[in-house]
Amino acid sequence: MKGATLKDVAREADVSIASASRAINGLDNVAEEVRRRVLEAASKLRYVPHGGARSLVMARTNTVGVLLPDIYGEFFSEIIRGVDVAARARGLHLLVSGSHGDINEAVAAVRAMGGRVDGLLVMSPFVDSQDLAAVLPLNLPLVTIASRIGKVEQGSISIDNFGGGVKAVEHLIDQGCKTLAHISGPPSNFEAQERRRGFLEAANTALPGAEHRLFEGDFTEESGYRGAKAFLNACAQTGEPMPEGIFVANDMMAVGCLLALREAGKAVPDEVALVGFDDIPIARFASPPLSTLRVGVFDLGRRGLELLVDAMERDSLSDGEDRESGEGIVVSPELVFRDSSRRRAPPA
């Protein structure tokens, strides 16, 4: 006698096949009432999941590919940690690669992962990332984090970088800063350019006619150090004072900026207030602790993997029935107020 199928269980429980699959596999994004109905239906029909057979039929590898711009530094370590924690909870393995800011390396990495993974989690925040869309496997579930590779139906997570730049400026002005500067990321990175655009729009609106100093960094500590040195040298040459507030496009550069200011004898925040971006773990251990825009780096990785698992479950449905639309998540950066920008006492 032919055994019950997952489709039979879904019909008996009056749910979609995707919901039945998530309940059977113990995933946490299932309503308790749905889970109860599915498990009761499975028991009634004597449904027995056959992991080996299912893997063979669907050619599953139980591995997901993760493509990041780099795998060096606290930001990407936190992304990978979030992905890994969520993957281990689901019995999945990771195949991780870095593109090193080179779109050709990203294309090569995606091609190398073909046939080895059940889905792709991609972070490719480059202006020319549309080129990557041309080589992405059409039949492979895909979720993007902070990427520009076209419409992704399975799911995407993006960051309101423009809004974060605006919040940084508003905070520095609220702390009494009358002159501002910005150390940006590279022009090839659209997230960096959005943070720069937010800075300029907010600064020009709040301080009309003022000149705002800019330095182009590359998201490394060294470039943050060079940026602060460039501001210090310009002030030494012109005799003008240092900008009272500096918004740095990520925390790694902000750490380098702090070091250069300390070496120059500039008091932070009394002479120069500083705000970073990301809130990586080292930010709270800097001296002084770094004010920053928190995006929840660990959660970016965790939520990205969870979206990908959902996409893989939808992709496993036969005949394309019961397919659900992918989710788009926009993360709004949250100001974390620490001593590096605390020029005013909080209200009583």
Automatic annotation (TrEMBL):
Keywords: DNA-binding, Repressor, Transcription, Transcription regulation. GO terms for molecular function: DNA-binding transcription factor activity; transcription cis-regulatory region binding. Residues 4-58 form the HTH lacI-type domain. The keyword Secreted does not apply. InterPro entries: HTH_LacI, LacI/GalR-like_sensor, Lambda_DNA-bd_dom_sf, Peripla_BP_I. PANTHER family: HTH-TYPE TRANSCRIPTIONAL REPRESSOR CYTR, LACI-RELATED TRANSCRIPTIONAL REPRESSOR. This is Catabolite control protein A. It comes from Asticcacaulis biprosthecium C19.
